[in-house]
Amino acid sequence: MNRSSFLRHFSLASPTQLSIKCPQQQHHRKAAVLIALIERDDELHIIFTERALHLRHHPGQVSFPGGKHETFDSSLQQTAIRETNEEIGIKPEFIEIIGQLPSLKTTSGFEVFPIVAFVDQRFSLNIDANEVKSVFEVPLRFLLDSKNFHLQHLIANKKRHSTYCIGYQNNLIWGATAQMLKNLQQLLLSNDV
After folding, report:
1. In angstroms, how far is CA 169 from the centroid of its own chain?
2. Terminal Cα-to-Cα distance of the chain (whole angstroms)
3. Are 139 and 44 a contacting pair, CB within 8 Å?
4. Is residue 119 within 8 Å of residue 38, measured between CB atoms?
């Protein structure tokens, strides 16, 4: 799938409207991640990070760049862009936001807002080793293939949960990140034309 095909499918799907401000709700802290699409050789890829191993929350897990909404962020989109810049050095001028997927509440107490954007391939990485161990890309076509998703069960906070897992090369994508990918997959494939 290339950029124009993605835009056609994504716009047909009528994704959630972008939040101008961070919604104020109790119980869950707000966070935003960037589902960063980059086109290489007429094919889209998604950028992922592997979290640093010394982090208190989710060490070593594969995630999208992003993080907690701060009071100085004017919107969730700004949170995703700021965090992406801080974590992996992609400058805001290389990011073009095109939409948002529905938010997802996590077992760790966050409501995460996935912001979908294209990233200009001329960007350069500047990884913050305090937050990120590595960065890698996965072809979107791989993530759109339902055969690559596997449902696993785990115990978190003394409760049984189901989670999707996707293995790609030496990386395992699971949990909230995999669920967001599944939501994106379902949205795009439900509008296959």
Report:
1. 19
2. 12
3. yes
4. yes
Q: How far apart are CA 75 and CA 69, in angstroms?
A: 8
Task: Compute how many other C-beta atoms are within 10 angstroms of the C-beta atom of residue 122.
Answer: 6
SS3 assignment, position 147: helix
- Decide if 178 contacts 35 (C-beta within 8 A): no
CB 98 within 8 A of CB 53: no
127-178 pLDDT, tens per residue?
999 899 999 999 999 999 999 999 888 776 787 878 899 999 999 998 899 9
Alpha helices in the chain (DSSP H): 3-12, 76-88, 140-143, 175-189
pLDDT digit string (tens) for 62-97?
Answer: 999 999 999 999 999 999 999 999 999 999 999 999
The token pair at 179 is 């669920």
Task: Tell me the whole-structure pTM to 2 decimals.
Answer: 0.87
Which single residue is written with the structure tokens 């101008």?
Answer: 20
